[in-house]
Amino acid sequence: MSLSAKDKANVKAIWGKILPKSDEIGEQALSRMLTAYPQTKTYFSHWADLSPGSGPVKNHGGIIMGAIGKAVGLMDDLVGGLSALSDRHAFNLRVDPGNFKILSHNILVTLAIHFPSDFTPEVHIAVDKFLAALSAALADKYR
Amino acid sequence: MADWTDAEKSTISAVWGQVDINEVGPLALGRVLIVYPWTQRYFGSFGDVSTAAAIMGNPKVAAHGKVVCGALDKAVKNMGNILATYKSLSETHANKLFVDPENFRVLADVLTIVIAAKFGAAFTPEIQATWQKFMKVVVAAMSSRYF
């Protein structure tokens, strides 16, 4: 489901608002994923504390959201732009790609909370498509 | 179908108690039709669903959103028995309406997002987890008569 010009514009516009709170939004999305989908905790068994707002969750949420923010600038070639990250997820981290959808859902929930009026249905569909395309690019090197 | 602690039961009731079906139902169904346009296949008789504005302004979409959301009330009031509560609705969706059960998951996720937008930060990760457990059970019950 490829991104139309309108989708890309909507993603860029909402990301302008996300950027100043990117770390906070990343932390919250990750906290929500770990709390509402406890099976995802299996990938973080090396962390001392998996509770919402803990140090590792804060740190890692910021890293993830930062990487997604970079991908906004790479929307015209997500597969190329995310190639190294795809290698990492495929061969180091070995994260089941089904989890990308779960994290995406929790990002959408977090965005709805932070931007109740800006997160319109049109923005929702654009971000959903972008995250789906990003997830596919992240899974590209898996096999 | 699932075990509920007292805390979970009161969380679900508290969340549901603050949801205005007449507001949230239309918002959720409209959002599903916009974000996942192939779902429009089930609503051929609803008139103009050609744009987001048309969908959100469509009175049949709004009315049906209230019906669908309203049906959740049964589950909230029968949490110990959600499977039995939705047996005949599941049969209707499977055998008469021919609705792909994937749509139940889609609607549950969009409803969660609409509720999150309404509640803001009060929709904490823990409350979200309990609410999504409830949604999962409702979706399973609605899917239960498909095979």
UniProtKB/TrEMBL annotation, chain A:
Iron found in the keyword field: yes
Keywords for the protein's UniProt record, in alphabetical order: Heme, Iron, Metal-binding, Oxygen transport, Transport
Domain Globin: 2-143
GO CC annotation: blood microparticle; haptoglobin-hemoglobin complex; hemoglobin complex
Annotated family: Belongs to the globin family.
Any GO molecular function: peroxidase activity
Pfam families: Globin (PF00042)
Keyword Translocase in annotation: no
Protein name, as recorded: Hemoglobin subunit alpha-4-like
Source organism: Oncorhynchus kisutch (Coho salmon)
Automatic annotation (TrEMBL), chain B:
Protein name: Hemoglobin, beta adult 2
Record flagged with keyword Manganese: no
Keyword tags: Heme, Iron, Metal-binding, Oxygen transport, Transport
Record Pfam families: Globin
Family of the protein in this entry: Belongs to the globin family.
Gene3D superfamilies in alphabetical order: Globins
Domain (Globin) ranges: 3-147
GO molecular function, one term: heme binding
CDD domains listed in its UniProt record: Hb-beta-like
InterPro entries associated with the record: Globin, Globin-like_sf, Globin/Proto, Hemoglobin_b, Hemoglobin_oxygen_transport
GO cellular component: blood microparticle; haptoglobin-hemoglobin complex; hemoglobin complex
One GO biological process term: hydrogen peroxide catabolic process
